[in-house]
Design brief:
Layout (H helix, E strand, L loop, with lengths): L1 H49 L19 E5 L16 E6 L5 E7 L17 H7 L3 E4 L4 H9 L4 E3 L9 E2 L9 E2 L2 H10 L13 E3 L9 E2 L2 E7 L2 E8 L4 E6 L2 E2 L10 E2 L1 E6 L1 E4 L9 E4 L2 E9 L2 E9 L7 E4 L6 E3 L3 E6 L6 E3 L4
Parallel strand pairs: 1-4, 2-22, 4-5, 8-21, 15-22
Antiparallel strand pairs: 1-3, 2-3, 6-7, 9-19, 10-11, 10-23, 11-12, 12-13, 12-14, 15-18, 16-17, 18-19, 19-20
């Protein structure tokens, strides 16, 4: 009887072991089936995290790269119109010269232009703006003061009068002295022959922003009139479709030489600076300019204008443009005309839509 009970106990134990084994096997198989599903979810979550697109930062288009700027003196006499390359310049300076006329200095960076001009002679105060832009300075002749300052300031300059007729040439559709032109390729080749640096790490003098600047607490500016003299008046009219100002001079709309494209600008900076007549050896009424220190002015863009200050501490230092609160102004990414005009110029900023 005792042996029989032992056999029954053994059978029960074996049965329990078998059942336990079956249960463990079932759980193991169930776990294996669940595992791939969990892994797939994890992978999907990981893939979703990787695939989230990231916004690329915007970059300034007007001033970029390491090409050294080129500053070219442009003839602005009526006989020189139309001019070539103005719309491709990232900055154009306009300053009064003798006889109530003005001359332009156009700055180019990384451009490949077949024709720029007509090119005219240097005036010494334009050097201040070529230097603050770290530019190679291009001209065709010079005044006595400009010749002296180019030497003393060690300006990297190219004087077309001293170069070959292949590098600077005279066109037939205009008459001398309003017909000398060159190209950016020629300028760079001449610069290399002279040992000038053709790259630059300098930052722009203007504080460009990729965000559209719409001036707050500003006056409307749909037409801007700048009289340089009784016979020489510059005017800009705002085009609401292009959000640019179209340029007029002496009541004539300005266009590009070969393309007849209207000359226009995104930004206008006006600086009031006193000019005076020089007592030089040639007595031609050439001018001087009191531009060191702080001058008043305006910044105009997108149909609005604000008052600003323009501070230049030396001939070689960069001009800093600030609003009335003392903050450096942000400039719309686009070309700029800097109008340095007489302090008594009766500048008119018209709020009426044209």
């Amino acid at each position: 009887m005792e042996n029989k009970n032992i056999k029954i106990l053994v059978i029960v134990l074996i049965s329990l072991i078998v059942v336990l084994g079956i249960l463990l096997a079932v759980k193991f198989i169930a776990d294996k089936k669940v595992e791939p599903q969990n892994n797939t979810v994890g992978m999907q979550e990981e893939e979703n995290m990787v695939d989230i697109p990231t916004a690329k930062p915007k970059t300034i288009k007007t001033y970029s790269g390491v090409d050294r700027p080129i500053a070219v003196m442009i003839d602005n006499h009526k006989s020189a119109w139309p001019q070539a390359g103005i719309n491709e310049a990232y900055i154009v300076y306009e300053i009064i010269v003798e006889g109530g006329e003005t001359r332009l200095m156009a700055l180019f960076k990384g451009q490949n232009l077949a024709k720029i001009g007509p090119i005219r002679s240097s005036r010494h105060y334009f050097l201040d703006y070529a230097l603050e832009n770290d530019a190679i300075y291009v001209h065709y002749g010079w005044s006595p003061q400009a010749q002296s300052d180019i030497s003393s300031l060690k300006v990297n300059n190219i004087n077309g009068i001293s170069e070959s007729s292949k590098d600077f040439w005279r066109v037939k559709d205009k008459s001398a002295p309003h017909n000398a032109v060159t190209s950016t390729n020629n300028i760079l080749n001449m610069a290399k022959r002279k040992g000038y640096r053709t790259t630059s790490s300098d930052k722009s003098i203007l504080k460009y922003t990729t965000e559209e600047v719409n001036l707050n607490q500003a006056q409307d500016a749909y037409k801007v009139t700048i009289p340089y003299s009784t016979s020489n008046e510059v005017m800009y009219k705002y085009n609401q479709d292009t959000k640019k100002y179209e340029r007029y001079s002496k009541n004539k709309q300005q266009v590009e030489w070969d393309t007849n494209e209207i000359i226009s600008t995104k930004n206008i900076i006006i600086t009031f600076a006193a000019n005076y007549t020089l007592n030089d050896s040639e007595n031609k009424g050439r001018q001087g300019l009191k531009n060191i220190g702080t001058c008043e002015g305006y910044y105009i863009t997108n149909g609005k204008a604000i008052k600003i200050t323009c501070t230049k501490n030396s001939r070689t230092s960069k001009t800093i443009y600030k609003d009335i609160a003392g903050n450096e102004i942000e400039i719309n990414d686009g070309n700029t005309f800097i109008q340095i005009c007489p302090v008594d110029a009766k500048v008119l900023i018209d709020a009426n839509i044209i």
